[in-house]
Amino acid sequence: MLKWHKQGPAFTAPVQLPDGSTASVVLLGSAANPRALALVVPGSDGKPASEYFPEAASRLTPCDLVQIYCMQERCFGTHGFHPPEGGGA
Amino acid sequence: MSKMYDIDTLLDEVVTLPSMPTALEQVTRLMNDPNSSLSDVAKAISGDPSISLKTLRLVNSAYYGLGQEVKTVDHAVVLLGGKVVKNLVLSATVFDAIEGAAERFILHTVGCGVAMRSLYKQPALAACLESADEGFVFGLLHEIGRVLLAEYLPDECNEIGLLVEGGMPTYLAERQIIGVDHAEVGAKLAERWRLSDHIIGALAGQYEIARCDERFRVVAAYLQLANLMCESSGLSSERHENAILEDSAWTLTGMTREDIPAVLEHFFEARHEIDELFSMSA
């Protein structure tokens, strides 16, 4: 399962893309904010580029997506799920 | 080094599967008897005070959302009808069986029940089950084998716990330490309780779709998804989450990536039901 880390106000986790490269999922807020969930991918020029969800979802496995949306709910949602202890999971 | 078993040796030498609880046995028999009445079913449930109490608590929970207080088993049976009551009694029986287990385990079990019920909206799952309640029962039962392993093989379960903390999925750790996993044990219990072939088959094959009988693969696939939803939401039976969702399982669900947010939202909205149901066994 994804390994989450707390970085300031954000939660991040490395994910593998279909081409085998590694990207980072960055969670910054609730699902109500379309800019609160991004996939940071290595750009062709070496600079990281951000792609937002749901557009970025096509690059991830369903298993990863379930974990990402659930973590967003845990950390920023309103239904009473608990955020991970110690900031990571 | 722990002794390794196959499922038959384990059941012969170590684990004694509990008999089918009387109330469940009687309700099952009455449901198959065309000459029985709902009043007979109510009487069978009332004969077991613990199951009666849990049945009433379930009926009056937000999960059932009846909007009226049900004070007697007779009333519950008349209100819900025989088929619903059978799943209700089975649920009450599972709650009884897991009473006293670790809170984390109970929360996960209940969470998976609620997740399976929320997934019933998906056409592929709905085509395999009689009702959303049946989905709830599948979720409740999916790790019942762990209760038995913990009771009869506590030292081995501690060793399994260490492997799980290292990142190994529980069922693989169980196979490594004992030779058998909790899914096989749970399926044998379901067989002893004469539950449906569907439940037995899906429980047995829930972690490896390729090893699951083809007839039960869709339900097994949804069990993987429900398990992943719970673990990802912090409702894990272990301190370390290790759920899987095989590619083949995802394909069997018939869902697309675009379906995931709405499916999860439906599950998230049921969070208060999980807490209420949890309080029945914790």
Please tell me about this protein's structure.
The complex is a heterodimer of chains A (89) and B (282). Chain A is of the alpha+beta class and 89 residues long. Chain A is 17% helix and 30% strand. Chain A is built from one helix and five strands; from the N terminus they run E-E-E-E-E-H. In chain A, a hairpin with a 5-residue loop joins strand 4 and strand 5 (48-52). The longest helix of chain A has 15 residues, at 62-76. Chain A is globular and about 40 Å long. Chain B is mostly helical. Chain B contains 18 helices and no strands. In chain B, helix 7 packs across helix 18 (271-278) and helix 11 (154-165) packs across helix 12 (170-177). The longest helix of chain B is centred in the first third of the chain and has 17 residues, at 82-98. The radius of gyration of chain B is 18 Å and the shape is globular. Chain B starts with 6 loop residues before the first helix and ends with a helix. The interface between A and B is medium-sized, with 25 and 26 residues.
Which blocks of ≥5 consecutive residues of chain B have pLDDT under 50?
none
Provide a count of the helices of chain A.
1
Strand count of chain B: 0
Task: Assign a percent range to the helix content of chain A.
Answer: 10-25%
- What is the 3D form of chain A? globular
The pair of chains with the biggest contact is: A-B, 25 and 26 residues
Number of domains of chain A: 1
